[in-house]
């Protein structure tokens, strides 16, 4: 670091668990960029001041995490189409004082799914479990791949219907009753768990009966703690191709890096840095 170092960071509450600084600093080092990335614990009542602060200090970029992803949108100058669809911003680019908000979670997830499990999503049938913020975050990006249909099922069915209704029919996103999940899974090419079921410490919990899954289909879980959920373990045993949530984290960071620097992200080094940081 010197007086030319370009500044980046992540804001959230809590934030000390974040692996973004380790991942992004490794990326800057690998490419030879004079940048530094730190984690800032920002409480909700300080969010506006934090954003004013990055303007004043001339940060080039910022990641935004829980609980600020929605609220932060009010303080930005422009919101990308993808972030508008996701209803949330996780990446800010400072374009000469103009703060532009993006969402790299959804596109990061899809890039990871394509790189690590299924390169061609066009014409496929995708089942999405859950209708919370995580589901909303990936639906727009999934729809860009032109699947035949995206079927959203949620324990609270009205939430799935409300979420699907926020998208125009051209996106081919529709809700299905929870009771139709078994039939939907038996014909789906890709099943994605966006619920928190199976997340540490409740690592034995399953979001649906694995017996419903079709051998050969892709089964994906957004959870990355544990790296391989009980749901994925069982799906693998049944002959499904499995995809864990770590890639989503890596690639959301890769897109942020690329937006900030204009250079391709060193994804392998970023993944290595994150894996090394696990206890
Ligand atoms: P996130 O931002 O991680 O998506 P969220 O908005 O609280 O978090 O959404 C959590 C999702 O997990 C919801 O779809 C929730 O279903 P409900 O809308 O019915 O609450 C789902 N979920 C959480 N616990 C669940 C459980 N035990 N069984 C089924 N779905 C569950």
Total number of beta strands: 12
The CATH homologous superfamily of the largest domain corresponds to NAD(P)-binding Rossmann-like Domain
Rg is 19 Å
Instruction: Please identify the top-level CATH class of the largest domain.
Output: Alpha Beta
Main sheet overview? 6 strands, mixed
Helical fraction? 25-40%
Domain Quinate/shikimate 5-dehydrogenase/glutamyl-tRNA reductase: 116-196
Domain SDH C-terminal: 245-275
Binding site for NADP(+): 130-134, 154-159, 222, 245
Subunit structure: Homodimer.
Structure described in brief:
By secondary structure, this protein is an alpha/beta fold. The chain has two domains: 6-102 and 247-277, Leucine Dehydrogenase, chain A, domain 1 (Rossmann fold), CATH 3.40.50; 106-244, 3-Layer(aba) Sandwich (Rossmann fold), CATH 3.40.50. It has ten helices and twelve strands.
């Amino acid at each position: 670091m010197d007086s030319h170092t370009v500044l980046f960071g992540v804001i959230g509450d809590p934030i000390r668990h974040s692996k973004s600084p380790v991942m992004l600093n490794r990326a800057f080092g690998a490419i030879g960029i004079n940048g530094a990335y730190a984690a800032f614990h920002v409480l909700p009542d300080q969010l506006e001041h934090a954003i004013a602060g990055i303007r004043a200090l001339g940060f080039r970029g910022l990641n935004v995490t829980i609980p600020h992803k929605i609220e932060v949108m009010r303080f930005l100058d422009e919101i990308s189409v993808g972030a508008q669809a996701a209803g949330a911003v996780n990446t800010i680019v400072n374009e000469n004082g103009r703060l532009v908000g993006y969402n790299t979670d959804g596109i990061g997830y899809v890039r990871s799914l394509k790189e690590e499990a299924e390169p061609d999503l066009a014409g496929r049938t995708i089942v999405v479990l859950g209708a919370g913020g995580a589901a909303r975050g990936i639906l727009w990006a999934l729809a860009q791949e032109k699947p035949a249909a995206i079927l959203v099922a949620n324990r609270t069915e009205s939430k799935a219907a409300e979420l699907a209704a926020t998208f125009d029919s051209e996106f081919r996103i529709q809700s299905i009753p929870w009771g139709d999940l078994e039939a939907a899974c038996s014909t789906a090419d890709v099943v994605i768990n966006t619920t928190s079921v199976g997340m540490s410490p409740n690592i034995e919990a399953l979001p649906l009966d694995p017996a419903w899954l079709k051998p050969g289909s892709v089964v994906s879980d957004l959870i990355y703690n544990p790296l391989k959920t009980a749901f994925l373990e069982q799906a693998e045993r049944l002959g499904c191709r499995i995809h864990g949530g770590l890639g989503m984290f890596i690639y959301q960071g890769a897109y942020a890096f690329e937006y900030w620097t204009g250079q391709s992200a060193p994804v392998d080094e970023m993944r290595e840095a994150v894996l090394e940081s696990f206890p």
